[in-house]
Amino acid sequence: MSTREKILDTALTLFNDQGTAAVSTNHIAEAAGISPGNLYYHFRNKEEIIRALFQRLFDTWDNGLPFPHDHQPTLADLKTIIETNYQIIWQYRFAYRELVALLRQDTELRKNFLAVRQRGFNGFHELIHTFSDAGIIHLPDDPKAIHELQEIVWLISEFWLTNLEVNGRSVNKGEMQNGVKLMLRVLQPYLV
Amino acid sequence: MSTREKILDTALTLFNDQGTAAVSTNHIAEAAGISPGNLYYHFRNKEEIIRALFQRLFDTWDNGLPFPHDHQPTLADLKTIIETNYQIIWQYRFAYRELVALLRQDTELRKNFLAVRQRGFNGFHELIHTFSDAGIIHLPDDPKAIHELQEIVWLISEFWLTNLEVNGRSVNKGEMQNGVKLMLRVLQPYLV
DNA sequence: ATATTATTAGAGTAAATACTCTAGGAGCAA
DNA sequence: TTGCTCCTAGAGTATTTACTCTAATAATAT
Fold first, then answer.
1. What mean pLDDT comes out for the span A88-97?
2. Measured distance CA(B90)–CA(B119) in Å, rounded
């Protein structure tokens, strides 16, 4: 593994465990088993490390979600997508916990994040319309209502894990399933 | 205003604007127009300031929500409660943004927060059953389903404003109304 | 082999941070 | 007035933080 990757992996672990504020560049270097000078050879500063981690998250978003291409999507596909989604968020949980602060500190990062997020939101929009066309779900006529439902489901997907952490509940497969259940509960009245 | 209150008000403003990590005790003292020594006369450390602010939040929770006592609650009452709720959260938004980090740093605070929150959750539970009894809402038979619906509405109430901030949307009365709409959208299929 | 470039270690530093200490006023009680 | 407690200012400090600099070593190209 390259030194650069080692730094990023170490930083991710520490950020997830202790939060970005509590983790200094010296900590990262020490935990990665390299010198501070070496760290600063690979990254100009802490902000750049955070940016690079977000970039990895963005790449995962854009490539890592298992949208079915070879068949009409089913409800099982939806569940799989949502679960994968949770796993990604859990992997980069520091980012979600501190989202407001991190995006405020770095407007460039904010721009990129919002763009990636918008792509995801659009993809999700298409997905539910696919379900609608396939007759799996019967959406309300009012497009505003549809948009609101989508916002609700999206909100749950982004904050369910944070919610678990706040509650001090351990985050595991089962709890992620509960998150899936909540999202389906919102849609339940519209399932055919 | 007492020096103690002045410190808390100043800290709250700075925390809301810049996050707790970026605000030092020296910053607070300077912004409050007092000396660092004076600040430390009133609070042992930064953690105590945060605790005191949470305590103010707890008091607001326990006393500030406009539950109707003189009449059967209506849907309008529900809306008012939710709106007040949003205003309180907005007033202490630093706490919600950084909840995971703050509660992890201070287990005593975590304990208190979870207790207050549980009280709120129980109150909310009673409220929707009141609505059910009054025939305003027709809940599903499955108690688990009811619990899930409650969890969803609760999640929206706790994270809607954070969600707005992430999106860079300005937080104002109108956007809070949108949050109310989302919560009602979840319940809409069950309204009589 | 030699020159060049890419990595790395580690000592060092200016600034910031949380917090302490001392001395002095302000109000009040006897 | 004298004493006492409460409150306040502000200088001072040990530690930490982000980051720099230099020199040495590894890798690669010619």
1. 96
2. 20
Q: What is the pLDDT of residues A93-152, one digit of tens each?
A: 999 999 999 999 999 999 999 999 999 999 999 999 999 999 999 999 999 999 999 999
Q: Could you tell me if A152 lies within 8 Å of chain B, comparing CB atoms?
A: yes
Predicted model pTM: 0.93
Q: Does B19 touch chain A (CB under 8 A)?
A: yes
Distance, angstroms, CA A28 to C1' D28?
30
Q: Which nucleotide is closest to A40, CA to C1'? A: D19
Record the tokens describing residue A166, joined without a space.
Answer: 């706040």
In b/e form, how buried is each residue of A87-123, taking b as 16+ CB within 10 angstroms? eebbebbbbbbbbbbbbbbbeebbebbeebbeebeee
What's the pLDDT band for A72 if we cut at 50, 70, 90? confident
Q: What share of chain B is helix, strand, coil (3-state, %, to 5)?
A: 80, 0, 20
Q: Strand C nucleotides below 7 A of a protein CB?
A: 7-12, 16-22
Which positions ≥6 away from A17 have C-beta within 8 Å? none
Task: Map residue A20 onto helix, strand or coil.
Answer: coil
Q: What angle do CA A92, A94, A100 make, to 5 degrees?
A: 115
Closest approach of chain A CAs to the CA of B134, in angstroms? 22
Strand D contact with B24 (CB < 7 A): no
Helix (H, G, I), strand (E, B) or coil at B137: strand
CB atoms within 10 A of CB A126: 10
Q: Which of residues 17-56 of A touch strand D (CB under 7 A)?
A: 24-27, 36-37, 40, 44-47
- Contact A159/B at CB under 8 A: yes
CA dihedral A11, A13, A16, A21 (to 10 degrees): -30
